[in-house]
Specification:
- The complex is a heterodimer of chains A (423) and B (383).
- Chain A is mainly α and 423 residues long.
- Chain A folds into 2 domains: 112 residues, no CATH class; 224 residues, MetI-like (MetI-like fold, Orthogonal Bundle), CATH 1.10.3720.
- The longest helix of chain A is centred in the C-terminal third of the chain and has 29 residues.
- The longest helix of chain B is centred in the N-terminal third of the chain and has 35 residues.
- Chain B is an alpha+beta fold and 383 residues long.
- The chains are: A mainly alpha (423), B alpha+beta (383).
- At the A-B interface, helix 4, helix 5, helix 10, helix 11 and helix 15 of A face helix 1, helix 3, helix 4, helix 10 and helix 11 of B.
Chain lengths: 423, 383
C-alpha cells in the first residue's frame, strides 16, 4: 500500500511531485524548442523513433505528476483545471503546444525574418522568405484595379462621402428621426449612387470618363457589396412579408421567388447575368456589366435575407399580432409599428450573417470578368515579370478579407447585445 | 364587398406584374434571337460534343453527345460534394465538440480555427490551395511515397487502385451483413421492450460487418489485388505515374477548401446542438440510473441531433452549391463542362444556363423536401 500511495500524487507529497512534474514538462518543452528554433536535437542518443516521442512521453509523465486535486497552490490549480484535467487532455495540450512551437519558427522566418520588402522589382527578392515587394509594387492595382493612377483620389473621396452620408442618421435631430427609415431605404441609396456615378465614373463636371471595365481591386468589392447590401434588405423584407401573407397569389409568388434563388448557386446566377440576361433586354438597350452583376447579386441575396426575416416574423408570439389588430391597426400600420421593429431586432445576427456571406461572395464576380481583388491577383500572378508569387498574393488578400469579415461579425455581436430586450 | 376588393386587388396586381415581366422578357428574347438567327431548342443535346474532359468518372470522349457531357459534369460535381461532405462532417464534429472542451488550449484553438476559416472567402481559399499550396509540391520523379504506396505530386495524388475478382459475391455478402444487422437491431429493440434484456448490438453488428465479407474472401472466390502506381519516364525530363488512380490537383484543392470552409459551419451547428440540450436532461438521465454512455446514446444525442441535423443539411446544400466554384480552377464540374465549354461551343445561352440552374434547383429542392419531411417526423409533439 505504501508504494502505491507513493506513486500516486496527492496533497501529502505535493512539493516533490509538483517540482519533479514541472521539471519534466520544462525538459520536454526545452527539447522541442531547441529542436524547432536552434535545430539541435538534444536527444539524439536515443534510438529510432523514441527521439521524436521523447518530449511527449516526458511531458505526459510530468503533467500526470502535477495533477493534484485541491493542491492549495493557485497556479497549479488553475493549470490543472484548464489544461490538465485527465491524461487525454494532457496529451492534447502537449500536442497543441508542440505543434505551435514547431510551426512558429518556419512561418516567422518565411513571413518576417527572411522576407523582403525593399526594392521595386522581382530582383530584390532573392531570399528564401516571402516577397512583400510584390505586394508593395502591386498595392495600388490590388486596391483600385486598372483605374488610372492619377484619379485614385476620386475613389477615395467618393468612399469618404458615402461613409459620411451613412453616419448622417446618427446625428439627425429628434423631430427628423421618424424619417430615418425613409432616408436609409430611399434617399441614401440614390445619393450614394449619384456620388459614385459622378465621382468614380466621371464624364461631367470636368472629370474624365472612366469606364467600369477599368474599375477593380478592393474598391470594386466595396462598391458591389455596398449596393447589394442596401438594396437586398428592403427587397428581402418585401418577400418575407409576402411569404407570410394570407393572399395565396402573393404568397406563392414569394415562395417561388425565394426557393428559386436559394436553390441555385451564385456562380450560375452570375453566368446568367453575363451571358443570358442581355438576350432578355430590348434590342438597343445597353446595360453595363457591373450593373447587371449588382442586380443579380441583389436578387440572389434578397432571397436569403427574406428567409432570415421570415424567421424573425415567425418567432413573434401571436399575441403581438392580436394586440395590434385589437387596437384597430391595419396591415401596414401593424407591421410598421409593431411587428417589424420587434422582428428585425430578433434577426440582427441572421442579417449580419447574410451580409457577411454577401461580402464573401463578391470575389465571385471574377468569373464573369470583373477584376476585383481575386481577379487582380490572378492578373498579377500571370504577369511575366512577377511569376511565382501566388502565395504572397493570396495571403495578402486573405488577411484583408479576414479583417473585414471578422470586424463585421464582431460588430454584429455588439449590435445584438445592444438591441437585446428582455422577452 | 370592401373585403373582396382588399383581398383581390393586390393579388391581381401581383400576378399581372409577374406576367408582364415574363412577357416582356420573352418578347425581347424572341426578337433578339430572331435578329441573330438563333433558334430555341434542346436538339443540341444529342449532337456530338467534340470536346474533351480531363477527368471523368464514366467513359467519355469527344465523339459523345452533349447530354453525356452534362452527365460527366454532374457526376464530377456530385463526387466532389460527396467527398467534401464526409470530410467536413468528421472535421466539423471534432471541432464542434472541441469548442465545448474544458481544456483552455483546445477550446481556443477550435474557436480560432472556426474564426479563421470561415472569415476568408471560399474562392480565395480554393485559389490559395490550388495556385499556392499545391504548386509547392514536388515533381513526380522527386515525390516521396506516403504510406509506401501513394504519391503526392504537383500533378496530383496517386493512389493504388483496387482490382477485384468476383466483386458481386463480395457485394452480396456486404448486403447480407447490412440486412442481418437491421434484423438484429429490430430483434434487440423488441427484446428490450418486452423483456428488458440488453444485447450488445454494436459488438454483434461490427462482428457481422467484418465476418461476412471475410467469409466471401475465404469461400466465395473473391480476391482483392492492388495496382500500385509506378513512375514512368515519358521523355528526358518528364515523368508520370502509371497505374492506380490519380486524383487531379483541382479535385484535391477543391475538396480541401470546401471541407475546411464548411466544417466551420458544421462545427457551429454541432456546438449549438449540444449546448441546446439542457443540463437537467443529463442529470435526470443519470439519476434514473443510466450509465454515461447510455446517457449519451439514449438521452443527449437524440435531442442534440434534432437541433443539429436541419442546419447541417443546409450546410451540405450550400457545399454542393459552392462546389460550382470549381469552374474558377478548371475542375470539370457541371458549371465548367456544361455552362462553360458546351455554352461556348453551341452558343445556346438560354437553354444551357436554364438546364444548369434547374439541375441545381432540383438537387436543392429534393433535399429540402426530404428535410421538411424529416423535421415533421422528429418534431417534438407537444400539447
Amino acid at each position: 500500500m505504501q508504494t502505491i500511495n507513493f506513486l500516486k500524487p496527492s496533497r501529502d507529497n505535493i512539493k516533490n511531485y509538483s517540482i519533479i512534474g514541472s521539471f519534466l514538462v520544462l525538459v520536454s518543452l526545452i527539447d522541442v524548442i531547441s529542436n524547432a528554433f536552434l535545430k539541435i536535437n538534444l536527444t539524439s542518443f536515443l534510438p529510432g523513433s523514441l527521439t521524436t516521442l521523447f518530449p511527449l512521453i516526458i511531458g505526459l509523465i510530468g503533467l500526470n505528476m502535477m495533477r493534484i486535486d485541491y493542491s492549495g497552490n493557485k497556479t497549479l490549480d488553475l493549470l490543472n483545471k484548464n489544461i490538465n484535467t485527465n491524461n487525454f487532455n494532457a496529451l492534447l495540450t502537449l500536442l497543441i503546444l508542440f505543434s505551435i512551437i514547431k510551426a512558429l519558427p518556419q512561418s516567422l522566418s518565411w513571413m518576417i525574418l527572411d522576407a523582403t520588402i525593399s526594392g521595386d522589382s522581382k530582383d530584390a527578392c532573392t531570399g528564401t522568405g516571402a516577397c512583400w515587394t510584390y505586394i508593395k509594387v502591386w498595392f495600388r492595382r490590388f486596391m483600385y484595379g486598372m483605374y488610372p493612377n492619377e484619379f485614385h483620389w476620386r475613389i477615395n473621396t467618393a468612399f469618404i462621402l458615402v461613409i459620411a452620408l451613412g453616419f448622417v442618421g446618427y446625428f439627425m435631430k429628434e423631430n427628423l428621426k421618424k424619417y430615418l427609415a425613409l432616408y436609409y431605404v430611399i434617399i441614401y441609396p440614390v445619393i450614394a449612387y449619384l456620388v459614385i456615378y459622378y465621382l468614380i465614373s466621371g464624364g461631367s463636371f470636368g472629370l474624365q470618363w472612366v469606364e467600369t471595365g477599368a474599375w477593380g481591386g478592393l474598391s470594386l468589392t466595396f462598391i458591389v457589396s455596398f449596393f447589394c447590401l442596401i438594396f437586398c434588405f428592403p427587397l428581402g423584407m418585401i418577400f418575407a412579408l409576402g411569404r407570410r401573407s394570407n393572399l395565396p397569389a402573393i404568397k406563392y409568388i414569394s415562395i417561388c421567388y425565394i426557393e428559386f434563388w436559394r436553390g441555385v448557386p451564385l456562380i450560375t446566377v452570375l453566368f446568367m447575368s453575363s451571358v443570358m440576361f442581355p438576350m432578355f433586354l430590348p434590342e438597343d438597350f445597353f446595360m453595363d456589366k457591373l450593373v447587371r452583376v449588382i442586380i443579380a447579386i441583389t436578387l440572389f441575396e434578397a432571397a436569403y435575407c427574406a428567409e432570415v426575416i421570415r424567421g424573425g416574423l415567425q418567432s413573434l408570439p401571436r399575441g403581438q399580432y392580436d394586440a395590434a389588430k385589437s387596437l384597430g391597426m391595419g396591415y401596414w400600420k401593424m407591421h410598421i409599428f409593431v411587428i417589424l421593429p420587434q422582428a428585425l431586432k430578433l434577426v440582427i445576427p441572421g442579417i449580419a450573417n447574410t451580409f457577411l456571406a454577401l461580402v464573401k461572395d463578391t470575389p465571385l464576380i471574377f468569373v464573369v470578368g470583373l477584376a476585383e481583388l481575386a481577379g487582380m491577383l490572378a492578373l498579377a500572378k500571370t504577369n511575366p515579370k512577377w511569376l511565382g508569387f501566388a502565395m504572397e498574393g493570396y495571403i495578402f488578400a486573405s488577411i484583408i478579407f479576414w479583417i473585414i469579415c471578422y470586424a463585421m461579425s464582431k460588430y454584429s455581436y455588439n449590435l445584438e447585445a445592444k438591441y437585446k430586450t428582455e422577452r | 364587398m370592401n373585403n373582396i376588393i382588399k383581398r383581390f386587388i393586390p393579388q391581381i396586381l401581383a400576378i399581372l406584374f409577374v406576367v408582364l415581366i415574363f412577357g416582356f422578357l420573352t418578347l425581347n428574347a424572341q426578337t433578339n434571337m430572331d435578329n441573330r438567327g438563333i433558334d430555341f431548342g434542346f436538339d443540341f443535346l444529342s449532337q456530338e460534343s467534340s470536346f474533351d474532359v480531363q477527368f471523368s468518372l464514366i467513359e467519355y470522349s469527344g465523339s459523345d453527345s452533349y447530354a453525356r457531357a452534362f452527365l460527366v459534369g454532374l457526376l464530377n460535381t456530385l463526387l466532389v460534394s460527396f467527398i467534401s461532405i464526409i470530410i467536413c462532417t468528421i472535421l466539423g464534429v471534432i471541432i464542434g465538440v472541441a469548442r465545448l472542451s474544458s481544456n483552455y488550449l483546445i477550446k481556443n484553438s477550435a474557436a480560432w480555427y472556426v474564426e479563421f476559416f470561415r472569415n476568408i472567402p471560399l474562392l480565395l481559399q480554393i485559389f490559395f490551395w490550388y495556385y499556392a499550396a499545391l504548386r509547392a509540391l514536388p515533381m513526380p520523379e522527386k515525390a516521396n511515397a506516403w504510406f509506401g504506396v501513394t504519391y503526392m505530386t504537383v500533378k496530383g495524388y496517386y493512389i493504388p487502385a483496387m482490382v477485384w475478382e468476383n466483386l458481386n459475391v463480395f457485394l452480396y455478402c456486404a448486403l447480407a451483413a447490412i440486412i442481418s444487422i437491421i434484423v438484429l437491431r429490430n430483434y434487440a429493440n423488441k427484446l428490450r421492450d418486452t423483456q428488458g434484456k440488453q444485447i450488445p448490438v454494436l459488438l454483434y453488428s461490427l462482428a457481422l460487418l467484418i465476418l461476412l465479407p471475410l467469409l466471401s474472401f475465404l469461400f466465395g472466390g473473391v480476391s482483392l489485388g492492388f495496382e500500385i502506381p509506378e513512375l514512368k519516364k515519358l521523355s528526358k525530363i518528364s515523368y508520370i505515374y502509371e497505374g492506380g488512380i490519380s486524383l487531379p490537383p483541382e479535385l484535391i484543392a477543391l475538396v480541401l477548401a470546401l471541407s475546411l470552409y464548411t466544417s466551420t459551419f458544421v462545427a457551429e451547428c454541432v456546438r449549438a446542438g449540444i449546448e441546446g440540450v439542457s443540463k437537467g436532461q443529463k442529470e435526470a438521465a443519470a439519476s434514473v440510473g443510466l450509465k454515461p454512455n447510455q446517457v449519451l446514446k439514449l438521452v443527449i444525442m437524440p435531442q442534440a441531433l434534432r437541433i443539429i441535423i436541419p442546419p447541417t443539411t443546409n450546410q451540405y446544400l450550400n457545399l454542393t452549391k459552392n462546389s460550382s466554384l470549381a469552374a474558377a480552377i478548371a475542375y470539370p464540374d457541371l458549371v465548367l463542362v456544361f455552362a462553360g465549354t458546351a455554352l461556348m461551343q453551341t452558343g445556346k445561352a438560354i437553354e444551357i444556363v436554364s438546364i444548369t440552374m434547374l439541375t441545381y434547383l432540383t438537387i436543392s429542392l429534393t433535399i429540402a423536401a426530404i428535410m421538411n419531411w424529416y423535421n415533421k417526423k422528429i418534431e417534438i409533439k407537444e400539447k
